[in-house]
Amino acid sequence: MLEKETNVQVRFFFVHGHKVIKVTGTITKLGLAASALSILTSIYIYTTLDGGNTELGIFVGLWAPTFILFAQEIDKMME
């Protein structure tokens, strides 16, 4: 069997008699992916959209750290 090492942890616990699966780390990975997409979109807008819309490109690029921070905080709240 081939095992893949990931940072995602799966935890099982019971709430009111129902088995609940808790996956941590997934939200952070989604935040990181959204951040990378924001940066790439920012570069595209900055250089090519309508001849290079610099203000909009910078604005979209500023979303990247927000996505990462929100994802990390959501993961912390889910623990």
**Helical/strand content category:** alpha+beta
* Arithmetic mean of pLDDT: 79
Order of strands across the main sheet: 1-2
Element order, helices and strands? Answer: EEHHH
Cα-to-Cα separation, first versus last residue: 30 Å
Helix fraction?
55-70%
Number of distinct helices: 3
Shape estimate: rod-shaped
* Unreliable parts: none
Gyration radius from CA atoms, angstroms: 18 Å
Structure, described:
The model has no long low-confidence stretch (mean pLDDT 79). A hairpin with a 2-residue loop joins strand 1 (9-15) and strand 2 (18-24). Helix 1 (26-47) packs antiparallel against helix 2 (54-61) and helix 1 runs antiparallel to helix 3. The longest helix has 22 residues, at 26-47. This protein has 79 residues and is of the alpha+beta class. Strands 1-2 form a two-stranded antiparallel sheet. Helix content is 58%, strand content 18%. It is built from 3 helices and 2 strands, in the order ββααα. The chain has helices spanning 26-47, 54-61, 63-78; strands spanning 9-15, 18-24.
